[in-house]
Structure formats: C-alpha cells, structure tokens
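tokens incoming
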C-alpha cells in the first residue's frame, strides 16, 4: 500500500517520507492524506488517489504512523460499510495494511481536489453542523472536475469492478 502524505501530516506523525513513488499496480492501494484544521480541531483527510473516494477522521490521538494507519483504516472501513460497499476493505485493502510505504504527496491535481473537499468538510461541520459520518457520506457524492464531474463513490465502484476482472 502507498500513502502519499503532505509535509504537515508527516511532521505530525513523525516520519520522513520518500521523495516519490510510482502509482501502485492496484489503484485501490494508492492513497493520499493531508492534515487540516477546522476551528481548533485537527482532522485528516484520506483520499484514494485514483477515485478521490475520501474519508475524514479526527487528527487528535494520531501521534505516529501506527495510529495513523489504525485510525485511518478503521474510518475507511466504517465509511465504506456506511456507503453499502461491504467487503471491499476486508478483501482488497486490509491484506496490504501491514506494509505501507510513505512518500511525499506530489500530484497537484489530487491535492487541489482534496482542498476542494476540505472546504466542503469545513462548511458541513461548521456552517451546517452535520456529524462527521454524514460529512463523509456527502463528501463522496460531490461531482469532481478531475473525475469529469462524476462522483467519487461511483469511481471507486468502477475501480473495484476492474480489480475483480
């Protein structure tokens, strides 16, 4: 599994990521992550690099890479199950969680899309007052320009179908 992380997140979890890695052979195992603030609270957004399927979880209590993987994968599994995509995490992602390679997040297009999603998260949490599970569900149902205005959840399902073929 590849996790492309920003400098802010690397500093928080106390790692020095590799300069760059090529895309993973299995797009379900290539993720990008960033740390951001909403008011005075830290949050982490974890985004699939190919589909832009994203999950946001609290950054509090994530002092190292082990806690990052543990809490990030739990949040991802919960979000996938809430979206009705049972088994995707257990079958495709969980087996690769033991060997995570960290590198710098360098794809400007993915980072720009993530910044759009972070803006939406801030609006949903602060302005509207949605709870985090609702925010995560809404996040993957926003048409994204990088996806030709398709939804991230639909792109993830298409990736899943291609990986099974």
């Amino acid at each position: 599994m590849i996790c492309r992380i920003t400098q802010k997140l690397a500093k928080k979890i106390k790692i020095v990521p590799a300069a760059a890695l090529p895309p993973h052979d299995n797009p379900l195992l290539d993720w990008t992550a960033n740390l951001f603030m909403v008011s005075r609270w830290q949050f982490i957004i974890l985004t699939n690099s190919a589909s832009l399927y994203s999950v946001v979880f609290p950054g509090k209590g994530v002092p190292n890479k082990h806690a990052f993987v543990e809490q990030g994968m739990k949040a991802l599994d919960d979000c996938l199950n809430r979206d009705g995509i049972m088994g995707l995490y257990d079958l495709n992602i969980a087996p690769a969680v033991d060997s995570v390679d960290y590198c710098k997040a360098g794809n400007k297009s993915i980072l720009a899309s993530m910044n759009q999603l972070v803006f939406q998260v801030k609006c949903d949490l602060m302005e509207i007052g949605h709870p985090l599970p609702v925010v995560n569900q809404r996040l993957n149902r926003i048409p994204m320009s990088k996806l030709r205005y398709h939804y991230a959840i639909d792109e993830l399902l298409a990736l899943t179908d291609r990986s099974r073929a």
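note: The helical segments are 7-12, 65-82, 88-93, 108-128, 132-139, 152-164.
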